[in-house]
Amino acid sequence: MSARIAKPIVFAFCMAIMMLPATLFAQFGGNNNGNNNNNGFNNNNNVGGVKIDANGVLSSATDSLDPDVRRAMQAALTKTSSDLGDATNMRMVSFKGLEAAIVKANQSGEALPIDVLFLAGLQRIEYVIASPETGDIIIAGPAEGLKVTADGDVVGEQSGRPALRLEDLIVAINSVDNARTGNGVSVSINPTEQGIKNLRKVSRSVRQFHPSMQATFAQAMGDQDITLTGVPTDSRFSHILVAADYKMKRLSMGFDAAPIKNFPSLLEMGQKANATRMNASPRFWMECDYQPLAKSDDNLVWQIRGSGVKTLTEEDRYDADGKAKGTGKQNRLAKKWADMMTERYGELAAADPVFQDLKNLMDLSVAAAIIRKYDMASQVGLEMPTLKGETKNVSLVAGPAPKTVPTQCSFVKVSNSWLVSTSGGVQLDSWGAIENPEVDGELAKLAAVQAPANDRWYWNAK
Predict the structure, then answer these.
(1) What burial class does residue 109 get, using C-beta atoms within 10 Å of its C-beta: 0-12 exposed, 13-18 middle, 19+ buried?
(2) Which tens digit of pLDDT belongs to each residue from 17-26?
């Protein structure tokens, strides 16, 4: 590999690659089944802007929701309780009441109500409250009325942020122990070792790279494998993890135009900087990013503060067998792109619901970790078999489990050849987020906020 020979840069969207004689950016390139509990809100083919076919093959979703289906979904939202549409900074949701509402719907043979499916319009979880006096656990945060987007996402009428979902809450509660053991809750999309060796072999026969070779490189690499740990692979929760990672990678590689201004891809950064050779492959992944949580003196009231998502990077190298090994080093341009992604994540989440959905999953998982670590259900004497996944009252199946994604390639020319690839995923460390909390004596006041005497399972705190 000679640094004196200027060649076009090959950016192969494969999710991980190895050292080649020219620049190679490599990276990874639902339909919902459910039962009658979903009230028609899991019957579109898109989850997080991606679709997964019956064989588990992931691809971008380009079709908008059928207008008639969208109107029916919006009509269902409109028929919900009138106060669900009231915007508030503090809506409190009772686990005891939520459990009872699910059981009631199942016993009557009816579909789950809209307010149950979307957790009373909660936009995020800010507080977790254990109430021994009422034998209840309460989650609270901002909430508002809901609407359906052209893509079928159910979002806040004012904010446009996705509403929290019952099925994701149940998965978070049931995966909480997995989150602190083994590989935790994560997703990664990686090329096969054979695909890397095939691509290396093909690249050796190439004297000059050219855009017409995209299909050749994609065919050599083959499909990338999707690996999910800690959560059911056919759940909406796992689909959102995969979709968020997939979209992050496509943004980094320039396959998708950024939904916000002045957000260049890593390729554009490299071309603008007239970058020189990279000796390894940058890997990107997203993690939880929280400020220290606050809690009351008695550990009964918690506040989730500064919820966010950070993007990290590290360079990988690939051996002759196609196996990746982290170097512990960061490429300058890759770090610059990762820092930009972190700093502007809020803007991206506002523009693309899947990134807000990822934040929602992280908040739900952190809330579940708090409840589990401090054994809140036992402390307050709360039985919640449905939320604990001990019953089949709620279907958690969102569609086929994502298994593979086809390789895609794009070409960009700069003055020197690079050697770059990108891989990574999402790491959801909910237990790490609840370490080292700060005591806030004022939080105890929230424990005194009781439900109104009208048998409602959610209410707005004043």
Answers:
(1) exposed
(2) 333 333 333 3
**Beta-ladder partners of 143:** 88, 122
Check residue 458 and give left, alpha or beta (phi > 0: left; psi -120 to 50: alpha).
Answer: beta
Q: Strand (E) positions, 319-356?
A: 324-326
Phi, psi of 410 (to 5 degrees): -140, 155
Distance of CA 99 to the CA centre of its chain: 26
Question: 74 near 446, Cβ under 8 Å?
Answer: no
- The H-or-E segment that residue 337 falls in is helix 332-343
Can you state the percent helix, strand and coil of the chain, rounding each to 5?
A: 35, 25, 45
Residue 449: both structure tokens together: 């906020």
Please give the model's pTM, rounded to 2 decimal places.
Answer: 0.86
**Distances, alpha carbon 87 to alpha carbons 120, 125, 145, 164, in Å:** 11, 15, 7, 15
Taking CA 316 as the corner, what is the angle to CA 312 and CA 317, rounded to the nearest 5 degrees? 175
Closest of 360, 359, 368 to residue 176, by C-alpha: 368
pLDDT tens, residue by residue, 15-56: 333 333 333 333 333 233 334 455 556 544 467 777 888 888
Give the pLDDT confidence score for residue 42 in this predicted structure: 57
Q: Which residues of the chain have pLDDT under 50?
A: 1-36, 43-45, 417-421
Q: What is the CA radius of gyration of the chain?
A: 23
**CB contact at 8 A, 175 and 370:** no
Cβ proximity of 119 and 101 under 8 Å:
no
88's enclosing H/E stretch is strand 88-94
